[in-house]
């Protein structure tokens, strides 16, 4: 029987810390007997109070997932549209109630949503997805927007037209890329492969499906903000591999691993230059957690 466990962690980057800026990343996760989710958000450094916006976006997505699960019983065929619609509704309402500006809500979002029958990872903007299989190999994918100008879910409330214009106005132009590499069990990597998405596809967000059969093979599904690609003297693939190299999977397993990993990386550099967030679903047959 499949049992889900989750954990998450986020940390301020050296550039923000040294300049007295707040951490603009946030993460959240949770699970119950039937579903699990793991969410990260990364606030735009040149936006407004995006440290607040990233938290609102993460919590809004968390609530949207819970609402979908309760209303549909975890049906996957309607999940992406339903969650996105509810996410938009909640962040719009929260922004108005808190008196925030649209620039305060400029943040990316990446989330994992799993059920006993499979699930998916949805990238709204940029970030990295990592799947660690039970045999030890890791498949990791990095999503990057052209000109370092990612899509933000808050554009759904207003701003799509301006965003499209910033990318040249052609919805069929390739503006989002995905680089995928596999870390084999001997520690070596396969040659990096790439895929491109149109501006239209990027506006909808990229969905990576995980079948019920694949759940039997996967031990961890993780999502990272793009801060994992900005660690001094450490490649993004090595960083992802390190943060998925768990020695102990009890309790706050992801938090412990990232804290330890960052300390190790600081031996050869400053560690993460940008803020970094991380959330993981662990798939096994141990004790249950509660989605609260």
List keywords for this structure.
five-stranded antiparallel beta sheet, 12 strands, Phosphatase 2c, domain 1, seven-stranded antiparallel beta sheet, globular, 292 residues, alpha+beta
Helix and strand arrangement:
Blueprint lengths: L2 E9 L2 H5 L6 E7 L3 E9 L6 H23 L6 H20 L8 E9 L2 E7 L2 E7 L4 E8 L14 H7 L7 E10 L9 E6 H6 L1 E6 H4 L2 E7 L11 H8 L9 H13 L10 E9 L8
Antiparallel strand pairs: 1-12, 2-3, 3-4, 4-5, 5-10, 6-7, 6-11, 7-8, 8-9, 11-12
Helix pairs in contact: 2-3
Characterise the protein shown here:
- The chain contains eight helices and twelve strands.
- The chain is of the alpha+beta class and 292 residues long.
- The chain has a seven-stranded antiparallel sheet. A five-stranded antiparallel sheet has the order 2-3-4-5-10.
- The C terminus is likely disordered.
Give a summary of the structure in a few sentences.
This protein has helices at 14-18, 50-72, 79-98, 160-166, 199-204, 212-215, 236-243, 253-265; strands at 3-11, 25-31, 35-43, 107-115, 118-124, 127-133, 138-145, 174-183, 193-198, 206-211, 218-224, 276-284. By secondary structure, the protein is an alpha+beta fold.
Distance between the termini: 22 Å
Question: The CATH topology is what?
Answer: Phosphatase 2c, domain 1
The counted number of beta strands is 12
Number of helices: 8
* Level-1 CATH class name: Alpha Beta
Helical residue percent band: 25-40%
Largest sheet: 7 strands, antiparallel
What is the mean predicted local confidence, pLDDT?
A: 95
Radius of gyration: 18 Å
Write the H/E string, N to C.
EHEEHHEEEEHEEHEHEHHE
User: By CATH's scheme, which homologous superfamily applies?
Assistant: PPM-type phosphatase domain
Provide the CATH architecture: 4-Layer Sandwich
- The main sheet orders its strands as 1-12-11-6-7-8-9
Structural class, by secondary structure, is alpha+beta
């Amino acid at each position: 029987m499949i049992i889900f466990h989750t954990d998450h962690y986020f940390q301020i980057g050296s550039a923000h810390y040294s300049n007295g800026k707040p951490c603009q990343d946030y993460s959240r996760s949770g699970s119950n007997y039937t579903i699990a989710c793991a969410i990260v958000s990364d606030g735009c450094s040149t936006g407004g109070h995006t440290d607040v916006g990233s938290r609102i976006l993460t919590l809004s997505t968390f609530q949207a997932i819970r609402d979908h699960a309760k209303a549909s019983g975890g049906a996957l065929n309607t999940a992406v549209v339903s969650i996105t619609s509810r996410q938009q509704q909640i962040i719009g309402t929260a922004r108005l109630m808190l008196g925030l500006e649209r620039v305060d809500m400029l943040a990316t979002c990446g989330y994992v949503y799993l059920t006993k029958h499979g699930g998916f990872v949805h990238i709204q903007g940029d970030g990295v997805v990592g799947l660690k299989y039970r045999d030890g190999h890791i498949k990791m994918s990095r999503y990057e927007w052209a000109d370092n100008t990612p899509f933000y879910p808050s554009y759904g409330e207003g701003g799509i037209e301006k965003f499209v214009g910033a990318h040249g106005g052609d919805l069929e132009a390739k503006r989002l890329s995905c680089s995928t590499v596999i870390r084999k069990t001997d520690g070596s990597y396969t040659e990096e492969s790439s895929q491109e998405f149109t501006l239209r596809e990027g506006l909808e967000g990229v969905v990576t499906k995980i079948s019920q059969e694949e759940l039997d093979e996967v031990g961890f599904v993780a999502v990272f903000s793009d801060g994992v690609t900005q660690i001094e003297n450490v490649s993004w693939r090595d960083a992802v591999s390190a943060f998925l190299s768990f020695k102990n999977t009890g309790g706050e397993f992801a938090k412990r691993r990232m804290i330890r990993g960052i300390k190790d990386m600081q031996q050869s550099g400053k560690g993460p230059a940008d803020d970094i967030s991380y959330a993981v679903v662990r798939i096994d047959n141990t004790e249950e957690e509660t989605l609260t």
